[in-house]
Amino acid sequence: MAPVIHIVRHAQGYHNLNQENHWLPDPDLTELGMTQCEELNKCFPYHDKITHLVASPLRRTIFTCQFSFAGEVKSGKKIIALPDAQEISLYPSDVGSDLAPLKKEFGDLVDFRLVSEGWNLKTPESKNYPEPRKLEARARSARLWLRDLVKEAGDDAHIVLVTHGGIVHFITEDWTGMRPERGRFSLYITLILLT
Fold first, then answer.
1. Pairing state of beta strands 4-9 and 188-192?
2. Residues 115, 103 contacting (CB under 8 angstroms)
3. Residues 50, 19: contact at Cβ < 8 Å?
């Protein structure tokens, strides 16, 4: 069977409630967001096939992964934090927390080996600054990393990537459903990799 990457947009965070909340730094999930995680956990048909859990290092994506794939996490599967999957805007809600507080909050649930100090910088000089050339390069880097993970995992790989509505368009190169004013995309899509 061909490897599969399941791409999940994070559940609702407080920044999704209104424009003013975009100024909240690295916000939590709302009550509805937690319910969305529970619903995805119930309806996701491939829990028994998941080989890897990957998430952007922002708190809402880690929480979405942790609660939507609770059985996998409980059984010892670590969530791999992938900095190239972080969101694309400069709003404080789309800038991740520093590494030390993330490690303290999530402990052994998350593998932070790919996350270095300064991963969350979005200055004009940084690779994370939201300009098209840099976003395309970051998305390509994420795709190559995922490709290598798939190669390592084999033909039966089922990888979950929990990320954000804006960067998912760059990663998939699919602009369907793009709402630039909201950065929204569908909650859950599946990519089947043809090898």
1. antiparallel
2. no
3. no
Tell me which residue has tokens 């730094």.
Answer: 25
Token couple for 122: 């979005």
DSSP 13: B
Q: Which residues contact 54 (CB under 8 A, 6 or more apart)?
A: 65, 79, 80, 81, 82, 85, 146, 149, 159, 160, 161, 162
Q: Residue 95 has which token pair?
A: 């800038």
pTM over the 0.85 mark: yes
User: What type of residue is 110?
Assistant: V
Query: What are the pLDDT digits (tens) for 92-141?
Result: 999 999 999 999 999 999 999 999 999 999 999 999 999 999 999 999 99
